[in-house]
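Sequence in, structure out. Go.
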Amino acid sequence: MFSIVIPLFNESQNIEILIEEINLSLNEFKNFEIILVNDESTDNTLNIIKNIKNKKIKILNNKINKGQSFSIHEGIKNSLNNIIVTIDGDGQNDPADIPKLIDSYLQNENIKLVGGIRLKRKDKYIKIISSKIANFVRSRILNDKCSDTGCSLKVFNRDIFLSFPYFDGIHRFLPALFKGYGHETKFIEVNHRIRKYGKSNYGTIDRLIRGIKDINKVKGILKKLK
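Output:
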């Protein structure tokens, strides 16, 4: 029915807990797969996921570190289902929200993306501020009607996603791309949790600057549709 894609970089302390939470949260669903994409982790992540006993799991391993967008794209390309769920591997997204997003997605066949909105962020202040600035700038320019495009917890159509021109950073612009290509989107509040183990693999100000630059790429993609 759906495929859950989880990009991983140095999440050896988090991934087993996350998989257990996913299985508990989705015990009413039978037909789904979990695609773990190891992005050349330098810790024990790869060995740990290889030893998880779960027939639903498919493992992909990047030979060199390619980043979150590439990992998500590879996972989706190798998925079996046309409904995709993306979730971070650090445990800050709550798997208990997945059924809510899937139900919302299935209620209206015209909706092709349902995204999570983290109203109560559990991040450092500087990360929250830089994210708010990036979201404000992006939303004003691209008019994607999304206040938190950085939330990784999303449900969307696989074929539509793969029709978009790929670029590094694409995962942060899915609401704008789906809307720009004429598809309906919806956003609902989801839980956000403190990172228990490890440290964030993404910067703050540098990510903000890179994200603003990527807006021009998306503008160019959407301009060609007019």
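Check: The first helix runs from residue 15 to 25. The longest strand covers residues 2-8.
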